[in-house]
Amino acid sequence: MTPNSIFLQYGQWSAILMAICAVFAGLAFMFKWGFRFRIVGATGFLGVLTAGLFALSLVPLTRTAIPGAVRYSLIYDSAGPQAVIVVPSEITKPQLEATLQQAASNLFSPGRTSQGADQLTIRARALIHPHPGVSEIVVLGQVKRSLSVREDENMNVEIFDERLAQLPQVASNDS
């Protein structure tokens, strides 16, 4: 069962309980029971809870896992058309490409404001230390994807090879 279907099921049970409480509230007002205002409050709370559970059933809460991707940290995201992630400085080109695709999938949201742009641009950067006491930010690549289509087939991943070459070389175990 996916988290969305679980939230939908809980929302249905909450809606049933809310309907039962609403019937009791109607009866309480008809017969002027002393707890009638409390049951109205409980019915209102269940209404808000039901709406929240239903909303959670609409939005996917799962993250995409793309093979070969490494962990990244989101360091800039204004909920608009641009975001920046930071990746480890020991990343390889295939890992960077997979990580950018994963970030593009995970950061998609239909609620992003376009601010005049029709694509979400996610840049990946790393921090290198060319000399002791000196840190330099290197933008390694970017991905551009649609702001409106969840399953974007035209995702454009661009790797900056000359900047990727600036990273410290990782010792490979090919021997």
Short description:
This protein is of the alpha+beta class.
What's the arrangement of secondary structure elements?
Layout: H1 3-31, H2 36-58, E1 73-77, E2 82-86, H3 93-106, E3 119-131, E4 134-146, E5 156-159, H4 161-164
Parallel strand pairs: 2-3
Antiparallel strand pairs: 1-2, 3-4, 4-5
Give a description of the structure:
The chain crosses the membrane at residues 12-31, 43-61. InterPro entries: Uncharacterised_Ycf51. This is Ycf51-like protein. Keywords: Membrane, Transmembrane, Transmembrane helix. A five-stranded mixed beta sheet has the order 1-2-3-4-5. 40% of the residues lie in helices and 23% in strands. Helix 1 (3-31) packs antiparallel against helix 2. The longest helix has 29 residues, at 3-31. A hairpin with a 2-residue loop joins strand 3 (119-131) and strand 4. It folds into two domains: 3-58; 73-164, no CATH class. By secondary structure, it is of the alpha+beta class.
Binned, the helix content reads: 40-55%
Largest sheet: 5 strands, mixed
Shape: elongated
The order of strands across the largest sheet is: 1-2-3-4-5
How much is the average pLDDT?
Answer: 89
What fraction of the residues are assigned to beta strands by DSSP? 15-25%
Q: Number of helical segments? A: 4
Kindly provide the radius of gyration, computed on alpha-carbon positions and rounded to a whole number of angstroms: 25 Å
Count of extended strands: 5
The low-confidence parts are none
Number of domains: 2
Which class best fits the helix and strand makeup? Answer: alpha+beta
What is the string of SSEs from the N terminus onward? HHEEHEEEH
How far apart, in Å, are the first and last alpha carbons? Answer: 44 Å
Keywords: Membrane, Transmembrane, Transmembrane helix
Protein name: Ycf51-like protein
InterPro entries: Uncharacterised_Ycf51
Pfam families: DUF2518
